[in-house]
Amino acid sequence: MIASLFFTLAQAAQPASAPAPDLFGMLVPFLCLGVIFYFLIIRPQKKKQSDHAKLISAVKTGDEVVTAGGMHGRVANVKETTLILKIAENTKVEIEKGSIDRVKKAETEVVSA
Questions:
Q1: Order of strands across the sheet that contains 64-67
Q2: Which of 48, 102, 49, 98 is nearest to 71 (CA)?
Q3: What is the pLDDT of residue 21?
Q4: pLDDT at site 22
Q5: Whole-number Å distance between alpha carbons of 111 and 113
Q6: Residue pair 66/72 in contact by the 8 Å Cβ criterion
Q7: pTM value > 0.85
Q8: Which residues make beta-bridge pairs with 10?
């Protein structure tokens, strides 16, 4: 008799089952944050990287460049991964192509129409 009383009390002490949470309803905020994160952070960064890669691949001898360290110079020779930069008379340095920050194209003839 005491055993049946304990079983009855144990069953009564268990909380009523709550409704199961909706998985889709829980994932929607995370999906929205992911989409916002993609369009505000990831996509612009990828575009900037591809633009920089195009800029580096278009560098040719005679272009004036500015390195990420702020050094200005004229490209004397372009190699596969590096380039020779003339920064002053009789002063040339070899730098990585990835350190190029800005490129000013070589001066070309102005053709008047």
A1: 91-96, 82-88, 72-78, 64-67, 100-104
A2: 102
A3: 74
A4: 81
A5: 6
A6: yes
A7: no
A8: none
